[in-house]
Give the backbone structure.
Amino acid sequence: MKKNGTNTKLIIAYGNPYRNDDGVGHYIASEIQKWADKEKIDEITIITAYQLDIDMTEDISLAKTVFFLDAHIEEYSPELVINKIEAKKSNGFTTHVFTPSDLIALVNQLYNKDPSAMLISVPGYDFDMGEELTPETRKQADRATEKLKHFLTKSH
C-alpha cells in the first residue's frame, strides 16, 4: 500500500504476512488505510514490506513523522511496545539488516533530515506458516491501531 504525493506522515509496516503473527504490521497498516480512506485523510503514506530496506530512505526523508510497525516475540514483552526512535547507526550495519534507527541515521546523513520516528511493536505468539493472527496478537494489534490513529490525528 502506498499513496502518492507529498505526505507528511509515513507508516512503514514490515514483517512476513505469511508467518501468522509476523504479519501484524501489515494488518495494522490495512486497518489504518481503511480508516484514512473513510475519514478522507490523505496526508498519510503507507509502505508494507517484508523487511526494512535502504530504498525507504527517500520516502522517510520526505516525511515529517514516521511510524514503524512490527511484531516482537512475546518473550521480549507480552505488552504493546511504543518507543521513540533515535538516529543511531548499529555496529552490524549492512544492507541485509536494517533497524528503524539505522534508517533514520541514513536519512540524517544522506538528506540532512531528521523526521520524528516511532516504533509500534506488537507481541507475537505464533510465527509458523499461515495468514492468521492469534487472538492475543489481534487484540494488541487493535489497541495499536487505536493508538496510531490518535498519533496520526494529534497533529492533524
